[in-house]
Amino acid sequence: MGTYLAIRARGISKYFGDVVALDGIDLDVAQGQIHGLVGPNGAGKTTLLGLLLGLSVADGGSLEILGTPVGRALAAPDGVAGFVDGPGLYPSLTASQNLAALAALRGIDKRTAGIGDVLDQVGLTDVADDRVRGFSLGMRQRLGLAAALLTKPRLLVLDEPANGLDPAGKKHVHRVLTRLAADGTSVVLSSHRMDDVEALCSEVTIVATGRVVFSGPLGKLAAENSELDYRLLTSDPRAARATAVETAGLRLVDAVEAGTRQDEDLLVVRAKVPALDDLVSRLVHAGIAVRELAPVVSPLEAAFLALTEQQQEADR
Ligand SMILES: Nc1ncnc2c1ncn2[C@@H]1O[C@H](COP(=O)(O)OP(=O)(O)OP(=O)(O)O)[C@@H](O)[C@H]1O
């Protein structure tokens, strides 16, 4: 089976009165890809995800989902499931009853719907018979994901699925999504957490004020050509500082200026990748062990900030 495009959007626009929420969006999402949608508040992410779910209709452009052009009807395209603005759940029903109600709405027999299976997938088996009213935000998010999985979608559309999840819940959800993608399901998700996007997504689309400012593989955003601040923890901070001062193309930065915790053993260096490589080999050569070397702000977050700032400048 060859890969196909789960989403092919061209020139999508959407207006709310005078507000231009989407302004000519192009988006390609391949089968089995987890695609991240990121952007500042009000960029248009939820609006775009709503269009993919058939909750609203674009004012311009063309949209194909799973190979079928989307018409003007307000209905989820076949094979698509997910949620925006949090999952819609009945608080007075239990987790199982919520899923059974949803199965009934979709004409699926609840005995064969696989309710136990999807609850197990999202780690909610133990609370299957608890009322949703008492659920935390993270539990609701996981139940929303279970509800989406019930239809065995080929495209999953999720608006901030990691919202409210504790680290264990997040790990669980990440595992579910990566397994689905490995089996050929495409996933589009929005997130304000760049670390989540980096952990999960092979491609990312950055949106600002309704326009795409970057779309493509995360690797293309790698900060090879731009300077980043790195936290450096070594076995000998004094000697490491002296080595850093001697390394060309690199400078020491105050931790507070870099926006990271101050610690006397910690150095923050600002450099491009080649200068950083040079520093590491000098440290190793001098017998100084490198215990931690990580960007203060991830390459995606740095690119995100730079690109969205450029867009905002251009809009002024
Ligand atoms: N139903 C609506 N009526 C009027 N304006 C709307 C409506 N929905 C969205 N907008 C406007 O469209 C723009 C895009 O909003 P949208 O919710 O899609 O952004 P977002 O990227 O999801 O933001 P956030 O990160 O804050 O969730 C904003 O200016 C918003 O105020």
UniProtKB/TrEMBL annotation:
SMART domains in the record: AAA
Keywords for this protein: ATP-binding, Nucleotide-binding, Transport
Keyword ATP-binding: yes
Gene Ontology molecular functions: ATP binding
Gene3D superfamilies documented for this protein: P-loop containing nucleotide triphosphate hydrolases (3.40.50.300)
Pfam families: ABC_tran
InterPro entries reported for this sequence: AAA+_ATPase, ABC_transporter-like_ATP-bd, ABC_transporter-like_CS, P-loop_NTPase
Coiled coil: none
PROSITE patterns: ABC_TRANSPORTER_1, ABC_TRANSPORTER_2
Domain ABC transporter: 7-234
UniProt record similarity statement: Belongs to the ABC transporter superfamily.
PANTHER family in alphabetical order: ABC TRANSPORTER, ATP-BINDING PROTEIN
Protein name as annotated: ABC transporter ATP-binding protein
The species this protein was found in: Actinacidiphila acididurans
